[in-house]
Amino acid sequence: MSVRDYIRALFVDIIKEQLKENSEPSTTKVYQQIIDHGVSETRAIELLAFYLEVFVKENHFTDEFDNEKWKEFLDKFDYNYHIPGEYEFDVQEERTNLRAITRNYGKIKTNEVEKWEDELYSIESHLLVLNELFEISSYEAKKIIHIVINRLFDLKNRYTSDYTDYAHEDILSLADGLEQICNPYKNPHLYKYLSQYVDLEDKSQFSYIFKSVFISLANVLDNIIYCEKRAGSDGYFDFISQFIDIEECIDDGPVFFFTDETLKK
């Protein structure tokens, strides 16, 4: 069991107890709301458990549970329901997507890494923050990247995917965050920014917009695998933490993947 698995199980147990005893009306209300959107009971509990984890961390691990603050938190939370899609996503689909990226968009060559420094930094700094705040492992980081890659291919192909057997709700929620920095169709602020450089309503521009995202995500995956082979499961985050100031990343918040130069590359 990974640290992430342990944390998830801890918060799932708390949510189950709240629902069983009906001790937190806000929890019960949101649980029913999630169910009503087509999410299974098990996944609804997992999603609420992740919300509770975020709430606890935002409140600096205070010992006493504040019912009113929890209600306020849930009332203002921007919910993203992960409703199972039509096609099951699995390890085979991971490989299919990576082959498609290499075939259609190529790879970042070793002598080109500096050219993509800003874009790679936006992804790797984001993952490092997730490692620091949510204790994801490199294994879970790879899953997050694969989910984002597949969501972008789903956008292109107009598919919907089912991640039920692939990842838990916390991992899907963390993937939402990574997607926010690189998918303008999921982030209105990024949409507005990128609209200065490309017509986002023109669907024929998909490859032009997302080529850089695909090859950068694939490059980070390669880096994670390389570090795992060389230095074990903690190797990747140990390595990038030498070059990225984690406190600065947390203070500054997420960085957009796209700069004013990205689409020119």
How many H/I helices?
A: 12
**Overall body shape:** globular
Number of DSSP E strands: 2
Number of domains: 2
User: Biggest β-sheet, characterized?
Assistant: 2 strands, parallel
Strand content: under 5%
Uncertain segments are none
What is the structural class?
mainly alpha
Helix content: 55-70%
Amino- and carboxy-terminal Cα gap: 42 Å
Query: N-to-C SSE series?
Result: HHHHEHHHEHHHHH
Blueprint (SSEs and pairs):
Layout: H1 3-21, H2 25-36, H3 41-58, H4 67-76, E1 87-88, H5 91-105, H6 117-134, H7 138-157, E2 161-162, H8 169-182, H9 188-194, H10 206-231, H11 235-240, H12 246-252
Parallel strand pairs: 1-2
Structure characterization notes:
Strands 1-2 form a two-stranded parallel ribbon. The longest helix has 26 residues, at 206-231. Helix 1 packs across helix 3 and helix 7 (138-157) packs across helix 8. The chain has helices at residues 3-21, 25-36, 41-58, 67-76, 91-105, 117-134, 138-157, 169-182, 188-194, 206-231, 235-240, 246-252, and strands at residues 87-88, 161-162. It is globular. It folds into two domains: 3-76, no CATH class; 87-264, no CATH class. With 265 residues, the chain is mostly helical.
